[in-house]
């Protein structure tokens, strides 16, 4: 039995079976792939999908909604048609997109934009299209509510994307797939399923059989029927050559296979029969090369000659020996230089000057040799060089002290003084530097003191004004409640009460911003939902928004969280909304958006200003600075300053951007999970 297993002819048969199995498996895979790619222009079959959930049907049912979205965006973004009305222009674009899309011919669609109907079928109402096996129906009313019915999932919300341009036009979109198209696709799906199953059933069988044969060949290779181990002439070739041959065979077979499949896909099914012979021959040759080289390596492993017949250990030995010698040579040079320089205690400046003098001396030596200068002058040059080196090294400490002083002042230590130096020039430089640092220290101290006194003054005055202002407001309200009070006096009392409330708001804002600038304000960071913050801020100003002639458009992503102080962020959004209500042009839109940008959350409020935006965006967030220089509107110039200060204490950034009459307030926070 053992002799039969190790017989020469059985090995030959196993080799032929291995090559035949690999070739047959490759031909089966190539045949199935080529037929799958060339069966129609669409790949309907998906391995993890059944026919009912075919992605092609989902795409066709979503097509009319996508075309309506692209038509509206084309109207608003690309350009409007002066000769047509809005509805006419959009309807024209919808028809154009349907005619340009080949997939639209495979569905029955009914689109109604406002009062304009676009359809390719004879139906009186869109409900008639809901009788098919696959259908989709979408309707948006004037109030923006959307109704959706479909036999498949809705993969895109195209209609929702129109809100930024059109939120009130009624839209009806209905479509279904005709039975003929369904039958055609189902037939194509079954054919393609058969091709793929052919690959996944027969190819693995061939591969498993080839692996079994390969295992047998690995076990018996290098041993004859008498149990003796013998090598062949192939073992005299370097092992790396066999590895390159295996890699080349695999890569070559892959390239040929891909080339053939692409050729068949582009030229058609009727011209590629001869390519099967090329595929079979290629994989047969590749399998023979791989098997020959692999068995040769196995025989070397069995006889423990793998490393002996490899060129890599020899190359590594010579490379390592050369590398070690180079490292030793460099080490000795660096060690000698380091011993010399460390004895003189040089610094970075010394290294630079030494390098310059070395280069200079080398040039002098070359010139001396070339011009036959006497040896005496050459020795004098060397002596001068050595003297210059020693002088530079002895003065290097002064430069290091000056550098240390500059670093200390740069890092905020204005009280640091450079010690007295030996060199006259550096000594004078050190004295001047110490005077500058002293002046900076005194100036900074005075500035800090002035800022602190200013903040304390504002805080104290704001606090002291609260009681009299409250009295003014209360007495004004009491006067309004007095019966029989003359109408003129009642008007005066109303003015007193109104101005008192405004003065109370001003003093409270002054008090709040002073607390922030003085660092006495408490900040309680917590996880906040940005969308909820925006909704609450808009709800607080709902009465003012309803009375204003402005339209607020919001677009906030869900599940956006930041770490911030809830009260302060509410105040920030309230101030920005109030700012938009005061300074926006009537009958315009105010956009409030919240979205994720990379790892940050960006909140943006933008509006069209009723006044020219001729101010400096870097100054508008300062205290008591207003964009309305005439001060014809209510406000005291603290709203944006408070918003900026509160945003920054919550670890966010606040930016004002203007573009023509467009005013944008942008808040950026780091997103938290």
Describe the structure.
This protein is an alpha+beta fold. It contains 16 helices and twelve strands. A five-stranded antiparallel β-sheet has the order 2-1-5-3-4. Strand 3 and strand 4 form a beta hairpin. The longest helix has 58 residues. The chain is flat. The two termini are 69 Å apart.
The total of helices stands at 16
> For the CA atoms, what is the radius of gyration?
43 Å
Helix content: 55-70%
Strand order of the largest sheet: 2-1-5-3-4
Strand content: 5-15%
Q: Specify the biggest β-sheet.
A: 5 strands, antiparallel
Question: What distinguishing features does this structure have?
Answer:
five-stranded antiparallel beta sheet; 673 residues; five-stranded mixed beta sheet
Secondary structure layout plus pairing:
Elements: H1 2-5, H2 8-38, H3 55-78, H4 86-100, E1 107-113, E2 116-119, E3 135-140, E4 146-150, E5 171-177, H5 179-220, H6 239-267, H7 273-302, H8 311-344, H9 348-370, H10 375-410, H11 424-481, H12 487-518, E6 526-529, H13 530-540, H14 542-547, E7 551-556, E8 561-564, H15 566-583, E9 589-597, E10 600-608, H16 639-649, E11 653-659, E12 662-670
Parallel strand pairs: 7-9
Antiparallel strand pairs: 1-2, 1-5, 3-4, 3-5, 6-8, 9-10, 10-12, 11-12
């Amino acid at each position: 039995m053992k002799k039969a297993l190790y017989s020469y002819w059985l090995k030959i048969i196993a080799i032929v079976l291995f090559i035949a199995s690999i070739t047959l498996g490759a031909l089966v895979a190539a045949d199935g792939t080529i037929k799958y790619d060339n069966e129609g222009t669409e790949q309907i079959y998906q391995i993890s999908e059944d026919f009912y959930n075919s992605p092609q049907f989902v795409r066709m049912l979503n097509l009319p909604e996508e075309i309506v979205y692209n038509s509206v965006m084309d109207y608003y973004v690309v350009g409007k048609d002066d000769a047509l009305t809005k509805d006419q222009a959009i309807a024209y674009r919808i028809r154009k997109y349907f005619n340009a899309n080949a997939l639209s011919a495979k569905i029955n669609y009914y689109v109604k934009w406002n009062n304009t109907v676009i359809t390719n079928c004879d139906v009186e109402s869109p409900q008639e299209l809901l009788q098919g096996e696959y259908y989709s129906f979408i309707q948006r009313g004037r109030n923006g509510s959307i109704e959706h019915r479909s036999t498949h999932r809705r993969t895109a919300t195209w209609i929702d994307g129109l809100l930024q341009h059109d939120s009130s036009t009624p839209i009806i979109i209905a479509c279904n797939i005709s039975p003929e198209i369904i039958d055609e696709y189902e037939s194509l799906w079954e054919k393609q399923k058969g091709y793929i199953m052919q690959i996944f059933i027969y190819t693995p069988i061939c591969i498993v059989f080839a692996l079994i044969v390969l295992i047998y060949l690995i076990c018996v290779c290098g041993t004859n029927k008498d149990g003796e181990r013998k090598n062949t002439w192939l073992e005299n070739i370097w092992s790396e050559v066999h590895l390159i041959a295996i890699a080349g065979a695999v890569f070559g077979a892959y390239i040929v296979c891909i080339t053939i499949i692409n050729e068949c896909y582009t030229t058609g099914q009727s011209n590629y029969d001869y390519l099967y012979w090329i595929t079979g021959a290629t994989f047969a040759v590749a399998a023979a090369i791989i098997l020959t080289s692999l068995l040769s390596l196995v025989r070397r492993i069995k006889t423990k000659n793998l490393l002996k017949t490899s060129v890599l250990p020899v190359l590594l030995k010579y490379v390592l020996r050369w590398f070690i010698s180079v490292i030793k040579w460099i080490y000795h040079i660096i060690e000698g230089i380091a011993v010399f320089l460390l004895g003189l205690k040089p610094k970075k400046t010394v290294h630079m000057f030494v390098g310059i003098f070395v280069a200079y001396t080398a040039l002098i030596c070359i010139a001396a040799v070339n011009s036959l200068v006497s040896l005496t002058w050459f020795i004098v040059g060397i002596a001068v060089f050595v003297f210059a080196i020693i002088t530079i090294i002895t003065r290097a400490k002064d430069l290091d002290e000056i550098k240390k002083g500059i670093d200390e002042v740069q890092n905020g230590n204005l009280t640091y003084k450079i010690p007295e130096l030996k060199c006259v020039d550096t000594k004078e430089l050190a004295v001047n530097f110490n005077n500058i640092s002293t002046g900076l220290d005194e100036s900074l101290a005075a500035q800090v003191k002035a800022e602190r006194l200013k903040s304390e003054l504002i805080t104290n005055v704001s606090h002291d004004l609260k009681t009299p202002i409250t009295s003014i407001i209360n007495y004004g309200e009491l006067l309004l409640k007095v019966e029989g009070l003359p109408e003129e006096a009642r008007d005066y009392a109303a003015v007193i009460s109104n101005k008192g409330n405004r003065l109370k708001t001003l003093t409270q804002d002054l008090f709040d911003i002073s607390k922030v600038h003085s660092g006495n304000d408490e900040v309680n960071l917590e996880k906040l939902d940005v969308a909820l913050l925006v909704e609450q801020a808009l709800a607080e100003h709902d009465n003012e928004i309803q009375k204003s002639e402005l339209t607020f458009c919001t677009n906030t992503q869900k599940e956006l969280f930041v770490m911030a102080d809830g009260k302060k962020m509410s105040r920030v959004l309230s101030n920005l909304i109030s700012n938009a209500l005061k300074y926006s042009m009537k009958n315009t839109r105010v956009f409030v958006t919240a979205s994720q940008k990379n790892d940050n959350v960006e909140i943006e409020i933008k509006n069209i200003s009723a006044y020219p935006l001729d101010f400096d965006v870097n100054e508008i967030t300062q205290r008591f600075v207003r964009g309305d220089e005439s001060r014809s509107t209510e406000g005291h110039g603290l709203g944006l300053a408070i918003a900026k200060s509160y945003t920054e204490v919550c670890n966010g950034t606040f930016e004002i951007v203007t573009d023509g009459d467009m005013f944008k307030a942008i808040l950026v926070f780091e997103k938290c999970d």
